Amino acid sequence: MKFYKHLYVSEDIGKKKEKIIRNMKSGKYPLTTYLLVLTEEGENQLEFYSASLLRQGMLYEEDIFVVGLASGYEDAVYLVEEIIGEVYEKTGDVDIRSYIRDQEKK
User: Fold this and answer.
1) 98-104 — which CB contacts under 8 Å span 24+ positions?
2) What's the whole-model pTM score?
3) Which helix (H) or strand (E) holds 30?
4) Cα separation of 63 and 82, whole Å?
5) Angle (deg, nearest 10), helices 96-105 and 73-91
6) What's the rounded Cα separation, in Å, for the pair 97 and 84?
7) Residue 32 above 70 pLDDT?
8) Residue 29: its pLDDT value, please?
9) Would the pLDDT of 36 be above 90?
């Protein structure tokens, strides 16, 4: 699992971000946390999953590039909207994948 260096977080995550990341890297996945993941190919550029899917082995850590953390489904939806808005505002396009890759290189 890799985390985006400009990680997006919902308001409820806020100050708990570092602790959540530490826990996830050590194999402890908070049940109410959702991961916003950048996909490598396909139509969907972003997907979000409950961290509990990692506990169940339904997702594999090595395949995940986390660009955001949200505290619940609704916050994940709002965070996706925020990311799309930022990308559009800065680029005039909604190519999230390219934008995040460019930002990661800087």
Assistant:
1) 100/4, 100/38, 100/67, 103/4, 103/5, 103/6, 104/4, 104/5, 104/6
2) 0.88
3) none
4) 24
5) 80
6) 11
7) yes
8) 87
9) yes
Q: Are strands 65-71 and 2-9 parallel, antiparallel or unpaired?
A: parallel
What span, in angstroms and rounded, lies between the C-alpha atoms of 67 and 58? Answer: 19
> Strands of 65-71's sheet, edge to edge?
2-9, 65-71, 33-38, 46-50
The token duo for 22 is 């530490």
**Structure-token match 């990341």, residue found:** 21
How much is the pLDDT for 17? 93
65 in helix, strand or coil?
strand
Contact (CB, 8 A) for 48 and 80:
yes
The amino acid that residue 56 corresponds to is: Q
Measure the CA–CA gap between 90 and 71, rounded to whole angstroms.
Answer: 26
What's the pLDDT tens digit per position in 44-89? 899 999 988 887 776 666 678 999 999 999 999 999 999 999 999 9
Q: Does 102 score more than 90 pLDDT? A: yes
